[in-house]
Amino acid sequence: MATNNYIVRQPIKNTKHQVIGHEILYYGENELYGGMGGASAQDGTVNEFAVADAIYNFLTQNSEKALKGSLNFMTFTTTLLMKKVPRLFDPPDLVIQIDDSVIIHPLAMHFVQMYQKEGYRIAVNEFQFAPRYLDILDSIDYLRLNMHTLNDETLRNIIEIAGNIGKHCIATEIDSDELYRKAVSAGVHALEGPAVAERLATKTHGSSYLQSSFFRLMVAVTRDEPNMAEIEQIISTDASLTYALLRVANSVQYATRNRTTSVQQAIMKLGIEQLKQWIYLLSVGSGSNDGGLDPFFEEFLKLSLIRANFCSDLMNYTRVVPLSRGEAYLLGMFSTLQFLIDAPLADILAALPIADEIRNALLYQQGASGMLYRMILSYESADWTEVSRLAAQLQIPAGILTGIYFEAMEAADTLWKSMQEFEQ
Length: 424
What we know:
- This protein is an alpha/beta fold.
- The protein has helices spanning about 35, 45-60, 80, 100-105, 105-115, 130-135, 150-165, 175-185, 195, 215-220, 230-235, 240-250, 265-285, 300-315, 325-335, 335-340, 345-350, 355-365, 365-380, 385-395, 400-424, and strands spanning about 5-15, 20-30, 30, 70-75, 95-100, 120-125, 140-145, 170, 190, 205, 340.
- The protein folds into two domains: about 5-195, EAL domain (TIM Barrel); about 200-424, Hypothetical protein af1432.
- It has 21 helices and eleven strands.
- Strands 1-2-4-5-6-7-8-9 form an eight-stranded mixed barrel, surrounded by five helices.
- Helix 14 packs antiparallel against helix 15 and helix 18 packs across helix 19.
């Protein structure tokens, strides 16, 4: 039976809700390797070498794409360290995470110290007050603290000692508001987990934003056969969209000899695919005081784009989901609205001109469309068993998921970079 290999990245945020990096989680050979390595293989060294080869091959193909542009936290086994996998990344881009299997292995720690001298930063998973951990503190930059296994007193003691010797503490496995508040109160430097990924300082827009032209425009541009006259009419009657669109069309990225002066010219210059993705960023960005995009919402805007492209591209592989590619795009795009608009998700979706199939998928995860959405969420949270189960029910080959995910992530990162250049 074919083996499914998955890789996903999850955000690590500071207490100001800013993303400081991403942990890269890998699953392969029917084993979850604590991020990029973690637990030792159940059937011995042969399996660990097989996984190391799979990881090395994947990163060789992808480290220049979606894994660039962010500080990556990855867990490495002894085998991965010996295969010199960390060198696929420049030292500023990588934090090497290690656990017990490496700490108790003299040869593995020799490699860790070698990488540290080359400029790589080191993190310890599941840090504890134990001699083997304390003995290597001089070599460590980050202490990763599992919020489910440390009591309050131990947590505060570790953080206090870490602060005194210049180490940063990252609270992990945060899956509730209670654990989030506990970690922040204890004084951690950064946090990771489902409750962290979905947390924002504030929301960009009030419920009045739902009455804007933006949502009608999003539906119009994502139809399988967009009506260009309708799109032009929607944009032309909204001054902020018109202004933003003309700025984009006349930016350096789309520069031509003749200046674009009309909505129709701008639409023709960008094309429907570019317009579809730019509109979301432009409209959400209009909520900030200076007209630019609020940096606190970068991760959610990127996530919207990743999910939109992920859902849309997966429609090429399933006949079970009763959505067009355009509708699947909306499913992913609108999945983060509850984090961007100050209103309940049910109220937000009730005000949008979208199909009931999309609305029910987002609210209740009902039907085949709900299964698709649930699979996307499971992929992001690294619930690989659920991912494989749902992929089988949707008749989607599980082996193609990681490739499509990384293509979606790369497209979102590329678009974001172009947006930043435009704003400058």
